[in-house]
Amino acid sequence: MSEMKALPFGSQSGPDLLYLDTSADPKDIWECATFRLDAAQQLVDYLAVQSAEGSQDGTAAVSNALAILLSDSRGLFDELHESIKRYQAKEKEAEEKGWQQAAIRATIHLLRSPSKGGEV
């Protein structure tokens, strides 16, 4: 079942419109975030070249695009972090359950086994 979460404010142009599926595979979230970071890096590289050549054309448009891409990336990486924490919590819970079940099985085994001359 999909669990939708709005992307950060900087990714929106008004009311929350852009969402991400928090139940998506963490690898997919990571790929989406790094794709946006790569695009942002390309824009920064472009600005550096333009600046070195003394041109300021397109700076505002590139800056706006960077702001959106970086906001998206930040939101995706934040969700990836939350996804990792949820996974680790489930893993810890499963481990604790495993220990509890093992203790219950051992206790049942001890209770069912006949006592041999007072030995426990």
Order of SSEs, N→C?
A: EEHH
If helices are DSSP runs of H or I spanning 4 or more residues, what is the number of helices? 2
Query: What sort of overall outline do the alpha carbons produce when their principal axes are compared?
Result: elongated
Distance between the termini: 50 Å
Q: Helix amount, in percent?
A: 55-70%
Structural class of the secondary elements?
mainly alpha
Unreliable spans are none
Query: Per DSSP, what share of the residues sits in E-state strands of 2 or more residues?
Result: 5-15%
Kindly give the count of domains: 1
Strand order, sheet with most strands = 1-2
Radius of gyration equals 26 Å
Using DSSP, what is the number of strands?
2
Largest sheet: 2 strands, antiparallel
How does this model look, in words?
It is a single chain. With 120 residues, the chain is mostly helical. The protein has one domain (4-88). Helix content is 68%, strand content 5%. It is built from two helices and two strands. It has helices at 26-52, 59-112; strands at residues 4-6, 19-21. A two-stranded antiparallel sheet has the order 1-2. Helix 1 packs antiparallel against helix 2 (59-112). The longest helix has 54 residues, at 59-112. It is elongated and about 90 Å long. The model has no long low-confidence stretch (mean pLDDT 84).
Write the layout of secondary structure elements.
Elements: E1 4-6, E2 19-21, H1 26-52, H2 59-112
Antiparallel strand pairs: 1-2
Structural features:
mainly alpha
What does this entry show, briefly?
By secondary structure, the protein is mainly alpha-helical. The protein has helices at residues 26-52, 59-112, and strands at residues 4-6, 19-21. It has one domain.
